[in-house]
Amino acid sequence: MRLDVVTIFPEYLEPLNVSLVGKARARGQLNVHVHDLREWTYDRHNTVDDTPYGGGPGMVMKTDPWGDALDSVLADGYDTGSHGPALVVPTPSGRPFTQELAVELSERPWLVFAPARYEGIDRRVVDEYATRMPVYEVSIGDYVLAGGEAAVLVVTEAVARLLPGVLGNAESHRDDSFAPGAMANLLEGPVYTKPPEWRGRDIPDVLLSGHHGRIARWRRDEALKRTAANRPDLIERCDSAAFDKKDREM
Ligand code: SAM
């Protein structure tokens, strides 16, 4: 998969060199390019923003630097054999970024990210590229960050760990919170490792029972409890028929 990020803070994307994403890059599973938007400014001050039409506080990112940058990045990508780009625009007014959307993005060959600063990018930029490719306007939560770079890191990590071969154990994300299947819409329950006793706290006996059916049911019940406590909105979307079927199989 190819990823391009256009930003006025390229250094903000340094974490893409470490951990899971860094290793995926080193193994050639991810091809990442970070570009400085100011390379596509032509005035002495490298201006990327201007006052908003209609008045109001804050500044708006200008059409020309973004248009020139995206044209150039897309042309370069095509030259190096990439196809099927999609534009990802982080914005608090976008659709919520979910595991389902992470799966959808992980199936695309090439993502181009346009993280903004100030009050966002002149709307005509999104409208223009939406005529050429899928555009995903995504929000990583109901709060407002100072810029979209942190959202790019979030989306990239969620997507990268779904790519074939990136996680050491391909099964690792099967039981994750929000993973598709019978446990969809359930948060993952608590997890434990050795030693079996720590500061007087034992791990639940069932985990030492070796009984796969009982362990699976315990995990499901803990997931339900945690979901009910932390995300009651998700419980309503649970597939209780899938639970009943699983119980009969145990
Ligand atoms: N005035 C904008 C609004 O209320 O929608 C907020 C602009 S914010 C200060 C600057 C940039 O940070 C946004 O254009 C976007 O790129 C990024 N950003 C802020 N919060 C975000 C969120 N929850 N999800 C994704 N991107 C976000």
TrEMBL record:
tRNA methyltransferase TRMD/TRM10-type domain span: 1-236
Chain ranges passing through the membrane: none
Protein EC: 2.1.1.228
Listed InterPro entries: Alpha/beta_knot_MTases (IPR029028), tRNA_m1G_MeTrfase_C_sf (IPR023148), tRNA_m1G_MeTrfase_TrmD (IPR002649), tRNA_m1G_MTases_N (IPR029026), tRNA_MeTrfase_TRMD/TRM10 (IPR016009)
Gene3D superfamilies per UniProt: 3.40.1280.10, tRNA(m1g37)methyltransferase, domain 2 (1.10.1270.20)
One GO CC term, this protein: cytosol
Source organism, top-level taxon: Bacteria
Keywords: Cytoplasm, Methyltransferase, S-adenosyl-L-methionine, Transferase, tRNA processing
GO molecular function, one term: tRNA (guanine(37)-N1)-methyltransferase activity
The reaction(s) this protein catalyses: guanosine(37) in tRNA + S-adenosyl-L-methionine = N(1)-methylguanosine(37) in tRNA + S-adenosyl-L-homocysteine + H(+)
A Pfam entry, by short name: tRNA_m1G_MT
Biological processes annotated in GO: tRNA N1-guanine methylation
Subcellular location: Cytoplasm
Subunit structure: Homodimer.
Database matches in HAMAP family: TrmD
Free-text function comment from the UniProt entry: Specifically methylates guanosine-37 in various tRNAs.
Family: Belongs to the RNA methyltransferase TrmD family.
Name of the protein described by the UniProt record: tRNA (guanine-N(1)-)-methyltransferase
Organism lineage: Bacteria, Bacillati, Actinomycetota, Actinomycetes, Kitasatosporales
